[in-house]
Structures are given as C-alpha cells and as structure tokens.
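Why do we care about 3D structure at all? Because function follows from shape, and shape follows, mostly, from sequence. That is the central idea of this module. The next example makes it concrete: a single protein chain, its amino acid sequence, and then its structure expressed as tokens.
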Amino acid sequence: MVAGFLKIVIFTAMVYKNILLIDDDAEDQEIFHTAARQASDEVVVQSFSNAKEAFAKLNNGELNPDVIFLDLNMPIMSGQEFLFAIKRTERIKEIPVIIFSTSSNESTIRHTKELGAAHYITKPNNFTALVDILKPLIN
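And the structure:
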C-alpha cells in the first residue's frame, strides 16, 4: 500500500511545462490548449492529431516533451498502439504518458497502465474541471 501511495505523491509532485497532446479531435485540442494556458502562462503545448506522425518526430528527436497527454480513440495509430510503441523504444520510453480519454472503462484503464501509462484521466465534461485537473501538473 505504501508503494502505491508514494507513486501517487511522486506523480502529483511533477510539474510539466512542455506538453505534447495527441488527440485527433481539433475541438478537444483547442479546449486543452485554452485550459492549459489558464492553468499556467508558462506552459507550452504542442498538438498532433496523428499519433504515428507524433511517434516518428519523438523517435527522431524533433520533439522532446516533459509529458504526453494521449487520447485512445484515433485513426491510423490508436492511443494504445502508440503507448505500446513508445514504451518499447529506448530513447523515448521514459517520457511519462498520461492517457486523456472519454472512456472510463476499468479494463481499458487497467490495460493502459499495464502498457506503461503513468496515469489515466477521463476527459471532464466542463472546462473548469479540466483547468483544475491541469493546475497541479503544470503550475
């Protein structure tokens, strides 16, 4: 039990300033950008709607984020495929990946954690809740 508690404390103590958001929904990207800017004026958010393209840029060193927020349901390369690939690629496997999805299915959450996700956040239904979620991570 103590190990689980320490993991939570370590996660919430992290502050991320350089965020990569991978989400194929342009509206969700815009909402995330706006919420992140409201939570901290020092944060930089880069977005990709194509996980395969983002993976290639991470792998070749063009992108070097502090953390990746990753949607699961995307065409071309799903979030789970992306997570599987990044956690098996030596030079980028240590980048924390936070799943950011509308799904709250327990088996999906468990599976993404088994694949190496640092955390799982279900997308909130309102903007204020999103800002509140982001504040401790980027402030």
